[in-house]
Amino acid sequence: MLSPAQRATYVAVAEAALPAGRFLPAAGLHTIGRVEAVLARVPALAERGLGALLGALDAAALLTHRRRFARLELADRLAMLERWSAGDLVRRTAVRALVVPLKVAHFDDPALYRQLGCVYEIRGQKEARAPYPRERVHDLATADGDLALEVDAVVIGTGAGGAVVARELAEAGVAVVMIEEGRYFERHEFTGRPFAMQQQMYRAGGTTMSIGNVAIPIPLGVTVGGTTTVNSGTCYRVPEHVLAHWRDDFGLREFTADHLDPYYQRVERVLGVAPTRPEILGGCARVIARGCDALGYRHAPLKRNAPDCDGQGVCCFGCPTDAKRSTNVSYVPLALRAGAELFTHARADRIIIEGGRAVGVTARTANGRTLTVRARAVVVACGSIMTPGFLERNGVGGGSGQLGRNLSIHPAAGALAEFDESIASWRGVPQSLAIEEFHDDGILFEGAATPLEFTAALMPHLGPRLVDLCERFERIASFGLMVSDTSRGRVRQVRGRPVITYVLNQADLARMHRGLDILARVFFAAGARSVMMPVHGFMELRGEADLARFRAATISASDLELSAYHPLGTARLGPDPASSVVDPDHQVHGTPGLYVVDGASVPSSLGVNPQLTIMALATRAAERLAARLG
Fold first, then answer.
1. Which of 187, 389, 454, 613 is positioned for an S-S bond with 493, CB 3.0–4.6 A?
2. What integer pLDDT is reported at residue 151 of this predicted model?
3. Residue 589 falls in the annotated catalytic set
């Protein structure tokens, strides 16, 4: 994918950024080959993006050294990369775009994993999941021709919203068809290899992101089970103060804790929600708990939907033991057993509207097969990022002007810390513990361990220090935090694709700054040698003096490396058609027969992981819809 000159420059970058260590080999041409193999799937990105960055680096070397980058001495190459890493936002972003693929490609190596004592691949059991009628699962891409069906309800999406609605309706005797854009993975196909599974199970290979005053990745699942298949399994109920906000500001007076309690209970029974067991909390949780105890901060094991978890540590890439009861192993099979049908590889493209009422949907495959489902109710559960565009393309839901607006995402950040003791973050649950001391202040700390190559990508270092840290991977701990955001974003459709804009406001920036300060304090109280921060200018703190400097600093949003996992609110629920997209029963204002039951309909930021709340609301919505259809 690269020209010979570009490849020579990229090899020179790899050699400088990833030199040989005590036992880790240096990166080189073989590393570039791995990156090119991935970029072959997106040749335009390679030609216009990566090629342009390499050209800019080469031009800068000619200006400052009068030699091409590949002709510089190794030390000069590293110095130039480090200057760019410490420079303005454009140069920092350029170096990150060049080096992160190298880190992932270089450290995704079974030999390196064995050398470090890590587990490289986890193969799930080959026997089938608990029996369910597989004859009700249909791959539309392999159909002999176009298909047409007529049912009571069609549900688009099989994540936290759609799968729950489908199961509840089917068990109430409603004829249901589920439509899913992705495929249905069996557990033996979950290998635990992060990059490979990310390419198969995440929308756009995990590259979905918002743009604004800081770029924020927002990974989304595109598989049966949706994002529940690739999340950490954390389960929280909606906090009381959020329900008070819904009541006072949105007029949702029925949405009380008592009203929602039976729906939460029903979901929690299906999912087996329980606190993480002590024996699988993991090393990161151990040191965080120790630091919290030293500082007097409240902490507790997180509740999760994985009662049989054995701590394999790859929750976000498909559970290889089916211990995590994501909807692909819970609600979808339950719906199938109750008589529902599932079509995979079917991307919904048109809502059939007759006389102002939704009466069905059409879906297509990449190879041109078409599925037409006529139904008395159409349930859209594509998620907060995809749902608004789908409605907009079909000319529905836009009456209030709120469709695609009000996006909250729970901006998140993580920090790494080096210890003198074994952490072995790959053993145990990656997200097993929470620091709850500051939850009322809009800051929630949760575990966030990642595999070696992703941890290396998070490290801000280059050269020998990076390799030294990776060789000490067993002693690296990680933890994360998210803020209950008051910032709001928007999802628009541009040439048929979602474009997400989100500006982090000063209040949320201040929460993030404070949260990172607290997290560093906890790490140091636990005995950390150093703490690596996702903040420009503070890549590694080595003690209280560095921490005090960070605490006193003025930082901007563009100084942060953030991510987000909980998009909500882009088709929000409310009684007033002038300020909401769907009514309290989830029916789209002005379009009878059309419902939105997913994170898009959640009225506001929750401040906690939302899957349990989406599922409880879906249970409630399905109960009411079943009564209408009955």
1. 389
2. 98
3. no
pLDDT at 126: 53
Question: What is the spatial distance between Cα 630 and Cα 628, in angstroms, rounded to a whole number?
Answer: 5
CATH number at residue 176: 3.50.50.60
Instruction: Say how far apart CA 196 and CA 122 lie, in whole Å.
Output: 13
Quick check: is 128 in a domain?
A: no
CA distance 612 to 619: 10
Two tokens at 145?
């021709």
Whether residue 327 lies inside any domain: the answer is: yes
The structure tokens listed for 309 are: 């978890």
Q: Which residues span the domain enclosing 530?
A: 275-304+412-484+505-559
On whether residue 125 sits in a domain, the answer given is: no
Q: Do 431 and 478 share a structural domain?
A: yes
Domain identity same for 526 and 577: no
Alpha-carbon distance of 417 to 475, in angstroms, equals 8
Q: What dihedral do alpha carbons 92, 97, 103, 108 form, nearest 10°?
A: 160
For residue 123, the model assigns a pLDDT of: 65
Q: What is the mean pLDDT of each run of 10 residues along the chain (630 residues)?
A: 91 97 93 85 66 93 95 97 94 93 92 86 63 91 95 98 98 98 92 88 92 96 97 97 97 97 98 97 98 98 96 91 95 98 97 98 95 98 98 96 98 97 95 97 96 92 95 96 98 91 98 98 98 96 96 97 97 97 98 98 98 98 96
Residues 179 and 316 in one domain: yes
In a domain, 489, yes or no: no
What does each C-alpha distance from 471 to 450, 531, 541 come to in angstroms? 15, 17, 19
Statement to judge: residues 533 and 430 lie in one domain: yes
Is 222 strand, coil or helix? coil
Q: Where does residue 28 rank: exposed (0-12), middle (13-18), buried (19+ CB within 10 A)? A: middle
pLDDT of 163: 98
Name the residue with tokens 């999760």: 304
Query: How many domains would you assign to the chain?
Result: 3
Catalytic annotation, pick one of 138, 566, 586, 589: 566
294 and 429 both lie in a single domain: yes
Question: 215 and 69, same structural domain?
Answer: no
pTM as predicted: 0.95
